[in-house]
Amino acid sequence: MDQVYDKIYVGGFEDVKDEESMSDAKITHVLSLLDRPLPPEIQNKYKCKFIRVLDMPDENLLTYFPECLRFIDEARVNGAVIVHCLVGCSRSATVVIAWLMQKKQLDVKTALNMVKDCRPCIRPNTGFQFQLELFARMAYDINVNNSDYKTFKLNMFGLKLGEGKIFNNDVKNLLVASPTENHPKTEVLYKCKKCRHPLFRESSLLSHTTGDWERSFDWNSKLSNLRKSDSEKNKVTCKESLFVEPVQWMADVVTNQSGKLTCPKCLAKIGSFIWCGEKCPCGSWVAPAFHIQKNKVDLCRPFVLVPRVLPNNQFMQETVATSCS
Ligand SMILES: [Zn+2]
Ligand SMILES: [Zn+2]
After folding, report:
1. Whole-number Å distance between alpha carbons of 41 and 20
2. CA end-to-end span of the chain, whole Å?
3. Secondary structure of the chain: what % helix, strand, coil (to 5)?
4. How close is the Cα of 242 to the center of ligand 1, in Å?
5. Distance, CA of 2 to chain centre
6. pTM to 2 decimals?
7. What is the spatial distance between Cα 151 and Cα 155, in angstroms, rounded to a whole number?
8. How many Å lie between the centroid of ligand 2 and the Cα of residue 107?
9. What ligand is nearest to the CA atom of residue 205?
10. Which of 13, 58, 2 lies closest to 36 in space, CA to CA?
11. For residue 197, how far is its CA from the centre of ligand 1 (angstroms)?
């Protein structure tokens, strides 16, 4: 094992079994990132936390960052922690890099190099590197409303779906609640043009930048796109098409690889979806693509109070209903 920061060690499975080095390092806490929990005889000696994760680019480690980082903080109060995976190169390093990024407000590269200086063998896989970049973009926390994070989670789901590894609970967690007929008056909604049924909130729209063509699912190109869009401050968000996150009323079809999207009330066809993605007319590859046809829906804004200047220069609040466009 290698000490990478005060009271933080990184290592492999063999290191955790080595009682002497564990005791020399005064380890009190063990964070395991493995495919199975540690044997009970080790678990009984330390305060342990186990995250089931494989060293694969399409494994979601990001979602567990907050609880892992809290565990490391807890350990450092009165003890020391070893963060370990099988060999101590990818999974464990990723979590410690995330911790350093958060504590010191560092970018991925700087934090990675700090860990590498102490443990030269570390090498987070490309999927984990992508997740670290995304973590930095979300200001070192999980923001469930972040469009990039939503797209990341949908991509993870799409990959699992392709491998036939989807369970009922996964689908439940994936879908956002449908807006209801008596939705709060402040919500901006898209409604079916034909029957006026509320279909999805404006916040469900997933944005993409125009023209950054990316055909295949590849973490390397995703990573470079994420970095590129970071540096290009004048990136243009595509306005040509509506892509949304899957909504509850799509539950019956969403586990197919592709299909039609119809209004749950009047059954009018309003769009289509394909998990592996499609090309937007702007030139960008959008994956997954839950594509709503613009001419089948109306954007409905709530009633708003608009200040109006009266002829005698006095202001008055006037209620104005903005109609559906
Ligand atoms: Zn309808
Ligand atoms: Zn587009």
Report:
1. 15
2. 62
3. 35, 25, 40
4. 17
5. 30
6. 0.83
7. 6
8. 29
9. 2
10. 13
11. 5
Which ligand has its closest atom nearest to the C-alpha of 194? 1
> In whole numbers, what is the pLDDT of the chain averaged over residues?
89
Beta bridge partners, 300, equal 189
The angle that helices 126-137 and 91-104 make with each other, rounded to 10 degrees, is 20
Q: CB of 309 within 8 A of CB of 300?
A: no
Ligand 1 centroid to 290 CA: how many Å? 17
Q: Quickly tell me which residue has 């046809």 as its tokens.
A: 293
How many residues in the chain? 325
The percentage of the chain sitting over the pLDDT mark of 70, rounded to a whole number, equals 86
C-alpha–C-alpha distance, residues 305 and 301, integer Å? 12
- In this structure, what are the phi and psi dihedrals at residue 167, rounded to the nearest 5 degrees? -115, 165
- Torsion angle of C-alpha atoms 103, 104, 109, 114, degrees rounded to 10: -90
Q: Which two tokens stand for residue 98?
A: 């995330």
Q: What percent of the chain has pLDDT over 90?
A: 69
**What would the two tokens of residue 136 be?**
């930095």
Domains of the chain, start order: 2-142 (3.90.190.10), 148-302 (no CATH)
Residue 217, phi then psi, degrees to nearest 5: -80, 110
Q: Among the bound ligands, name the one nearest to the CA of residue 268.
A: 1
Question: What angle do helix axes 126-137 and 108-118 make, rounded to 10 degrees?
Answer: 130
- Cβ 135 vs Cβ 60: under 8 Å: no
How many whole angstroms separate alpha carbon 68 and alpha carbon 62? 10
What mean pLDDT is predicted for residues 281-298? 93
41 pLDDT above the threshold of 60: yes
Cα–Cα distance for residue pair 155/143, rounded to 1 Å? 16
What integer is the mean pLDDT of 264-278? Answer: 95
CA distance 272 to 277: 11
CB 136 within 8 A of CB 107: yes
